[in-house]
Specification:
With about 70 residues, this protein is α+β, with helices and mostly antiparallel strands. It has one domain: GTP Cyclohydrolase I, domain 2 (2-Layer Sandwich), CATH 3.30.1130.10. About 50% of the residues lie in helices and about 25% in strands. The protein is built from four helices and two strands. Strands 1-2 form a two-stranded antiparallel sheet. The protein is elongated and about 40 Å long. It starts with a helix and ends with a helix. The relative contact order is 0.22. The mean pLDDT is about 90.
Length: about 70
C-alpha cells in the first residue's frame, strides 16, 4: 500500500521526489495468531530525490518525526 501511494502521487504530480510513511494497527496480529494487542506497523517508501538525496530524505524524516 505504501509503495502504491508513493507511485500514484509521483505519477500524478510529476514531483521530483515523494516520501510516504504509514503507521497502522496490524489487525491480523491483534486478532489471530500471536494476539498481540496494540500491534502497530510502520512502513515507508522513498521515491526520486527522497531516495537518492540523503539530505532531502533526512529533512523529510526529521519533519515527520516531530
Amino acid at each position: 500500500l505504501t509503495k502504491q501511494i508513493a507511485d500514484v502521487v509521483m505519477d500524478i504530480t510529476g514531483a521530483a521526489g515523494v516520501g510516504v510513511i504509514i503507521e497502522a494497527k496490524h489487525l491480523c496480529m491483534m486478532m489471530r495468531g500471536v494476539e498481540k494487542q496494540n500491534s502497530v506497523m510502520i512502513t515507508s517508501m522513498m521515491r526520486g530525490t527522497f531516495r537518492t538525496n540523503p539530505r532531502t530524505r533526512d529533512e523529510f524524516l526529521q519533519l515527520v518525526s516531530n
